[in-house]
Amino acid sequence: MTDALSVNKLFVSYNGDEALRDISFTVKVGKLVGIIGPNGAGKSTLLKTLLNLIKKDAGTIEILGNSIKEMKTRVAYVPQRSNIDWDFPITVMDTVLIGTYPKMGIFKRPRKEHKKWAMECLKKVGMEQFHNRQIGELSGGQQQRVFLARALAQKPDLYFLDEPFVGVDVTSEEKIVSILKELRDDGKTVIVVHHDLSKASEYFNELILINKEMIEHGSVEKVFQAEILNRAYTNQFTPVIHGEVAT
User: Fold this and answer.
1) How far is CA 113 from CA 69, 104, 124, 176, in A?
2) What is the enclosing helix (H) or strand (E) of 184?
3) How many CB atoms lie within 10 A of CB 66?
4) CATH placement of domain 5-189+202-216
5) pLDDT band at 104 (very low <50, low <70, confident <90, very high)
6) What is the CA radius of gyration of the chain?
7) Distance between CA atoms of 215 and 225, rounded to whole angstroms?
């Protein structure tokens, strides 16, 4: 089976400063994976480099055995909320319809079936009643659910989410996690930049632990050990797994 994602000897820098060093890992199809690490570890940089939003210095990245350019219609990206202009005059429905553009063609107008599908995606995230609302009028959790609906509208095979739980309410977080797990169970692959270690064992199958370089990658049980985490967090944490301190 082709790997969903394969990264080999990835190096990235900003203005001559090294941001990521010698990152290598693979992710199988049908996994829900968290990218974790301390602030400044390069988590978002890694995600954006995988999507070709940041240029790499060296290394190879393959998505389903091909480049991101060849696979772009099979990949969806949910950016950090802080990177979005919430004052832009666009409705919830039109935001989700944007997700249909990659397969429809940017110069074609959405047809009835596209609008029907967009509404189904809004229902999936529990936001259908807000379809005519301006996106900036929503709460943080509601906005995040709308952008997840936009990603669902693309019908991709891989989902990339950058800090999707920051600034969202508990109900929205639970809804988003439930949908991500459903996607995984349906054979989709989901990669999530995540900062809250207390939820890592509950949310993910696998973890990618980085601090500018690869610290560890594998199952939650393999990565979520005090000795391994402390290599990234410099003795900041005593992690707890299902109520017990990991040793």
Assistant:
1) 27, 11, 17, 25
2) helix 170-185
3) 11
4) 3.40.50.300
5) low
6) 18
7) 12
